[in-house]
């Protein structure tokens, strides 16, 4: 038994985790901070942080706007996927409909509904929070909240959004949900939010 009441692993380094283990708030002191790049879409700063022993370490922090994604399922259990060119990785990625919170005063659910409409010409009657994904917390503060959407219907043609740039070349696909799980496990889908959301939905169904 350790000082905090947990037990050591019987044969390997580390402790046996409590069943309710979770992320927790924590903040090391920041000795210095410098803004390197700042736009309405993404910012970059350079921080000098101080560890508990007093040591200082330089860290770059990328600060994009927070984002939302949508796990949308039709009445026949087909999952909506979009395929979009992503310049940073030079690939056409298979993803969930998603987007950033870039409308002043709009909450996450409203943004999710707007992105589903803009990227797929679809609206949903039923919404529920599914999970939050932090893509790479070693250097970015980005958090993406995924909502599960059902009761889908098409948006009338005259109400649809005109898509531009990468979104103008976006494809929409409906994949039976079990095949989506297979695509993740086979490595054919590599987008982090899509992987997390699909596997979370699969776990919910099978637990």
Polypeptide structure, described:
It is a single chain. With 207 residues, the protein is α+β, with helices and mostly antiparallel strands. It has two domains: 30-64, no CATH class; 67-206, Nucleoside Triphosphate Pyrophosphohydrolase, CATH 3.90.79. It is 20% helix and 38% strand. It contains four helices and ten strands. It has helices at residues 108-120, 165-168, 177-185, 192-206, and strands spanning 30-38, 42-50, 56-64, 67-72, 78-86, 91-95, 98-100, 122-133, 144-154, 171-176. The strands form three sheets. Strands 7-4-9-8 form a four-stranded mixed sheet, with helices on both faces. A hairpin with a 5-residue loop joins strand 2 (42-50) and strand 3 (56-64). Helix 3 crosses helix 4 (192-206). The longest helix is centred in the last third of the chain and has 15 residues, at 192-206. The protein is globular and about 60 Å long. It starts with 29 loop residues before the first strand and ends with a helix. The model has no long low-confidence stretch (mean pLDDT 93).
List keywords for this structure.
207 residues; alpha+beta; Nucleoside Triphosphate Pyrophosphohydrolase; 2 domains; four-stranded mixed sheet; three-stranded antiparallel sheet; 10 strands; 20% helix; 38% strand
């Amino acid at each position: 038994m350790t000082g905090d009441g947990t037990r050591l692993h019987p044969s390997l380094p580390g402790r046996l985790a409590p069943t309710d283990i979770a992320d927790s708030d924590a903040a090391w002191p920041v000795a210095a901070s410098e803004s390197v790049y700042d736009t309405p879409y993404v910012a970059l700063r350079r921080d000098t942080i101080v560890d508990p022993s007093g040591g200082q370490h330089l860290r770059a922090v990328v600060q994009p706007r927070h984002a939302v994604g949508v796990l949308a399922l039709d009445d026949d259990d087909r999952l909506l996927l979009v395929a979009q060119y992503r310049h940073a990785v030079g690939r056409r990625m298979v993803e969930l409909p998603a987007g950033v919170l870039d409308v002043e005063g709009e909450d996450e659910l409203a943004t999710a509904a707007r992105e589903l409409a803009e990227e797929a010409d679809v609206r949903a009657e039923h919404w529920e929070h599914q999970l939050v994904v932090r893509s790479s917390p070693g250097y970015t503060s980005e958090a993406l909240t995924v909502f599960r959407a059902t009761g889908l219907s098409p948006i009338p043609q005259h109400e649809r959004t005109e898509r531009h740039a990468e979104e103008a070349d976006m494809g929409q696909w409906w994949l039976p949900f079990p095949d989506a799980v297979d695509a993740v496990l086979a490595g054919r889908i590599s987008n982090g939010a899509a992987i997390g959301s699909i596997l979370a939905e699969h776990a919910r169904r099978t637990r």
